[in-house]
């Protein structure tokens, strides 16, 4: 199922390579005809564009991350972590953008919090920092890479088993590709890593290559966090079958139209017919003979085109984007301005639900990292609740009216100013955001 969902999302050559899994073969259809249809297969990818639209709209403004406390080294690390959270130069916003994209495709995605392995035991925080053992990082896993798990009585993970597999060469001079498979076992205290290294198609011996206490053992928790989408908001699951039906109908209509362009000649005659027909030949007809071409009347073509338009609208409808459906039938049921606004309001509520899911996971991940490092910080994540750039002027107006009430609360003023500043400057470096937050705290504190 997940492989099908990934093909439907990607479309293009990826789906064409696996076209035989999705293009339905007609009953007793000749193999050469079906093969020709596979060669000409095409795919109108609506659901992939819908998922990309949701992800892009959610992250139009990056989430606002605020760290409060007097731990400057901790803030310095957090700023670096936000700019590079996986040791590959990926910002935390971009990392979680991929997580929500994966969740909309497969229903869930997973984030592992890990710390670098160190060969020497660090006795102080300075030694730990010097050897890089305190540099937490994130690793992403997909739904099909989580192959086994168990929950405790509170519903948290008791243990998990993750699997990754890829082709690699042992060295540059090695001409043979080999498959390396790794299994990662984590419980609330320990981890174990197993590896299998063998030629493609063979089964290699499984060996234990690493084990020990993981970074969140002091918290007595498995270091795996999930981004899960409720079944009702799992877009690919809602639209996948509709997209497959549209795929088969559109390819059938395309094939029929192509065949209609190569009409067959028809000769109406009572006598025996043995003449050869072709572009370089001519035919001789008797006085009562008639000649014509097979040509469909087109009624079924119109029915098929209308059905494709309905399928397209249904894909957008189940994804809460009916106002963006367009298509041939869009003008037949013109909506009022109020109706369109109401439809987009529904879309915004769905976007907020996705934003809440991402913010919740980000909070849990960042707080787990801060606690594991024993930083004296309180981390919070906000934003991802307004999806129209034009709304910022409204927010400023709301903030002015709120501050104009004359409420004697410096704490409220700090949070209002921080929220406005961080939302407007969401794309600047985290260290700049931290400096702005400190200046706001100091400025209002002096007042």
Low-pLDDT stretches? 327-331
Distance between the termini: 60 Å
Shape, principal axes of CA atoms:
flat
Strand order of the largest sheet: 4-5-6-7-8
Entry summary:
With 447 residues, the chain is α+β, with helices and mostly antiparallel strands. It is built from 13 helices and 12 strands. A 5-stranded antiparallel sheet has the order 4-5-6-7-8, with no helix packed on it. A 3-stranded antiparallel sheet has the order 3-2-9.
Describe, in plain words, how this protein is organized in 3D.
This protein is 44% helix and 18% strand. The model is unreliable at 327-331 (pLDDT under 50). The chain starts with a helix and ends with a helix. It has helices spanning 2-10, 12-17, 31-39, 46-58, 72-83, 92-106, 125-130, 235-260, 299-318, 337-373, 391-403, 410-424, 430-446; strands at residues 64-68, 108-114, 137-142, 146-151, 157-168, 178-187, 190-199, 206-213, 224-228, 265-268, 290-293, 378-382. The protein has 447 residues and is of the alpha+beta class. Among the domains are: 112-124 and 136-228, no CATH class; 239-335, no CATH class.
């Amino acid at each position: 199922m997940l492989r099908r969902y990934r093909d439907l999302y990607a479309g293009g050559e990826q789906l064409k390579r696996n076209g035989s899994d999705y293009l339905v073969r007609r009953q007793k259809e000749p193999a050469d005809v079906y093969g020709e249809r596979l060669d000409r297969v095409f795919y109108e990818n609506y659901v992939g564009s819908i998922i990309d639209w949701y992800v892009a709209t959610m992250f139009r403004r990056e989430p606002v991350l605020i760290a409060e406390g007097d731990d400057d080294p901790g803030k310095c690390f957090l700023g670096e972590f936000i700019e590079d959270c996986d040791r590959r130069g990926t910002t935390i916003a971009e990392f979680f953008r991929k997580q929500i994209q994966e969740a909309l495709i497969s229903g869930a995605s997973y984030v592992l919090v890990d710390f670098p392995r160190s060969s020497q035991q660090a006795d102080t925080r300075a030694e730990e920092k010097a050897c890089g053992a305190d540099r937490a990082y994130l690793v992403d896993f997909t739904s099909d890479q989580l192959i086994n798990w168990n929950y405790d009585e509170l519903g948290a993970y008791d243990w998990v088993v993750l699997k990754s597999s890829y082709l690699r060469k042992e060295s540059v001079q090695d001409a043979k590709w080999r498959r390396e498979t790794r299994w990662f076992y984590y419980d609330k205290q320990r981890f174990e890593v197993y590896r299998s290294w063998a030629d493609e198609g063979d089964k290699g011996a499984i060996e234990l290559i690493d084990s020990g206490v993981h970074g969140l053992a002091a918290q007595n928790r498995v270091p795996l966090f999930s981004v899960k989408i409720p079944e009702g908001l799992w877009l690919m699951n809602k639209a996948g079958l509709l997209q497959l039906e549209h795929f088969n109908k559109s390819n059938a209509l395309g094939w029929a139209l192509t065949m209609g362009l190569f009409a067959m000649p028809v000769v109406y005659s009572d006598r025996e017919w043995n003449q050869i027909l072709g572009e370089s030949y001519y035919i001789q007809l008797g006085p009562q003979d008639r000649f014509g071409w097979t040509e469909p009347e087109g009624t079924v073509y119109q029915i098929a085109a209308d059905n494709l338009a309905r399928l397209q609208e249904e894909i957008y409808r189940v994804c809460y984007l009916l106002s963006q459906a367009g298509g041939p039938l869009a003008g037949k049921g013109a909506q009022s301005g109020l109706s369109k606004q109401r439809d987009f309001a529904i879309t915004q509520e769905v976007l907020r639900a996705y934003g809440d899911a991402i913010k919740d996971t980000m909070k849990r991940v960042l707080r787990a990292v801060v606690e594991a490092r024993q930083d004296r910080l309180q981390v919070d994540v906000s934003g991802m609740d307004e999806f129209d750039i034009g709304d910022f002027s409204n927010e400023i107006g709301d903030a002015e009216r709120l501050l104009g009430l004359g409420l004697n609360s410096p704490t409220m003023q700090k949070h209002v100013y921080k929220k406005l500043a961080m939302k407007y400057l969401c794309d600047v470096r985290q260290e700049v955001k931290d400096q702005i937050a400190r200046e706001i705290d100091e400025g209002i504190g002096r007042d």
